[in-house]
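Case study B.
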Amino acid sequence: MKKVYEKPVIVKVETGFMNKFGESPLYQRKVRTDIDGVSIDKLVEKYGSPLFVISEKKLREKYRNIYNAFASRYPNVQFGWSYKTNYLKAVCAVLHQEGAIAEVVSGFEYEKARKLGIEGKDIIFNGPHKRYEDLEIAVKEGAKIHIDHFDEIIDLEKIADKLKKTVKVAIRLNMDTGIRPQWSRFGFNLETGQALDAVKRIAQSGKLILNGLHAHIGTFILDPNAYAKEVEKMVKFAYEIEDNFGFKIEYIDIGGGLPSKNKLKGTYLPPDIAVPPVDEYAEKITDALYTNLRPGDFPKLILETGRAIVDEAEYLITTVFASKRLPDGRKAYICDAGVNLLFTAFWYKFNVEIDRKVYGVNEPSVLYGPLCMNIDIIDDGILLPPLERGTRLIFSPVGAYNNTQWMQFIEYRPNIVMIMEDGSVEVVREKEDLTDIERRERLPEKLKIR
Amino acid sequence: MNRLHQLAINDEGFIFDPLTGENFTVNRTGLFIINRLKEGKKEEEILQELIDEFNVSREVAERDLIDFLEKLKSYRII
Ligand SMILES: Cc1ncc(COP(=O)(O)O)c(C=O)c1O
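Model:
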């Protein structure tokens, strides 16, 4: 009988130093053989690798969990799904079914929401670049328009004249909430009085009716107090407007920015410890509302939470294609998915699970993607046991900003499937082929190769 | 420079270099290879012994042996 084989490994023991990976070489990596009960093997066999996998169940759970944290504390809550975070139809449709309206930031996203069947009145139109044509459609369809700059006020007044109607609008604010860097490029600044100037300008012409305030103070905000400051400033400003200009501020939209359970690069604490629970945010936000609102006044509270809802509902299955030894002794693996598909790899350190139990000591390793590009690194310092070619790695959370910011570069984009609540699997975006990439290209006649 | 001969190696796979004070740990297969390197065996001989001793294909063993030797070089052990 021959002995059981284990790949040979040697690791240097660094005593007295904090292990830079924060993990022991003897620690077992997590094994994941299925997603929502559907085996990784079956998924890859049928839909190929790499493969994005969305869990309908998890998506709904996350939405309900976050929505309820607010709705159980305040009587008038509305969520707007931030399309740019993930605008796959299937994802948007699930969240609309759950009760979210749409939050879009361009003519393209607006069109997408309309095509999906969302009415104009259920679309929040944010963003610094709303073309005149897009604005005109949004006005006609009764969308919630959030003005970003003075030029947009002028455009909207022209449209109001043209359509002979007064248009309900909100303005977007930026302010100091203690968050650094301060997002000051969107909307009107509160502290300098610019926001007040915008209100005066709107009141003067009488063509627009101000009925809402909006702000988005940043993303992956780990300090719930920042939101408390935001709410306090917004409510105070709302009353200043109501008392001096006669507008009624019907809603306060505090934007997105809640963190997901992902690990930012350069942080040591695991997300379960670093990321405060959503109830803490909801508590601070609703506290600030009750402290600053006048008795009996409950304007609608809108949230545009993106990543916190969708990030953890999606996984990426990738396959180890080859391995090599780097000159500095680290082990390197080439995976079939890289930064082309995982745009967020630039700032996240993903949770990496292996599709099988692998025996052997963990060693410092690097995970490369398939691109012939130096920057294509998914993880440049991870402890992994020796992996066989063909081993599958499951990255998560990957639901936020990857399916919108990914790029068709060097490689095709793969299938995206959704595991439905009943356990069935649906392709929600088919993998690309050459026709997708070349459909818009034209080759001048004289350049044709004969 | 080959410092293989100055290393103290025990059966559990702990390796100590008394000159530099460095510590290493190896697994069973790694120890198997290091002991044979110490005996002065050639790569091809070690490969054959790996195949005879363990339940492994030539292809996998060869690939892993090359990789392991590269790792030893990176630590300047061989
Ligand atoms: C206006 C607006 N709302 C909502 C979001 C969603 O943010 P998050 O994913 O951080 O919740 C963004 C993201 O940049 C945004 O710009």
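Chain A has two domains: 34-54+312-438, 56-309. The remaining cases will be described in the next quarterly update.
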